[in-house]
Amino acid sequence: MASWNLWHGCKKISPGCKNCYVYRRDESIGLDPGDVHMTKSFDLPIRKNRAGEYKILSGETVYTCFTSDFFLEEADPWRPAAWEIIRSRPDLFFFIVTKRIHRFHVGLPSDWGDGYENVSISVTAENQAMADFRLPIFLNAPIARRGVACEPLLECLDLKEYLRTGKIAFLAAGGESGENARVCDYSWILSLAAQCREAGVSFSYHQTGAKLLKDGRLYYIPRKFQHSQARKAGIDTD
Fold first, then answer.
1. CA separation for the pair 172, 95 (Å, rounded)
2. Fewer CB within 10 A of the terminal residue: the chain, N end or C end?
């Protein structure tokens, strides 16, 4: 497993963006999270060591552009080169999460076809409005491997019509982290888990978030326990 941060920084596209990790971290150390710039690790997947071997070994999963958004408008000039790097390493599996699926076609490689088999793209759907906007675009795009990230989950979602298409392989859900996190109701998580089971879609409860409402009681969960507490729920499926 490797992290490949091609560019850093992001432009806000919703009120909740101020709570994301990039904004919280940058502002905590006096940086402008809206300053979009290419990182020094841009060519990491094709870097080699002194022995001439790739630094990222064959077969690894590469979590791509998690300090920004791969389809960010400000990164349009750099994206063709990023796609070329991905195309040149078919032995790696690139995992991309985006809230800008409406910009998916911008700068798409000419040989993309129905999607590179070594690329999985997940779209975020934090509330019903965003799910209903993004998922139709997502499901009609030529993507070989699809997932949905309902994180941070902000309300109860009805995704049955999208899950039933058979085009979504997995769904991850979780609450919001950070000091100003919004509440996640555990019943919303259970609803998504049930919808995924019915549709035969793999489900993962990724993290509880900082504020979890369960059976009428509000729990405040420290960041270091949010992933482990979610796993203890035992509701993940293969």
1. 13
2. C
- pLDDT tens for each residue of 136-160: 999 999 999 999 999 999 999 999 9
Residues 6+ apart with CB under 8 A from 149: 97, 122, 123, 124, 125, 171, 172, 173
Q: Out of 35-44, 50-59, 112-121, 208-217, pick the least confident.
A: 35-44
Q: How far apart are CA 199 and CA 133, in angstroms?
A: 21
Residue count of the chain, please give it: 238
Closest CA to 236 of 145, 165, 174: 174
pTM: 0.89
Q: Cβ(68)–Cβ(103) under 8 Å?
A: no
Burial tier of 112 (Cβ tally within 10 Å: 0-12, 13-18, 19+): middle
* Cα(211)–Cα(195) distance, integer angstroms: 23
Euclidean distance between CA atoms 77 and 64, whole angstroms: 17
Cis? peptide before 15, omega within 30° of 0? no
- Quote the CA–CA distance of 122 and 149 in Å, as a whole number: 6
* β 211-214/217-220 pair status: antiparallel
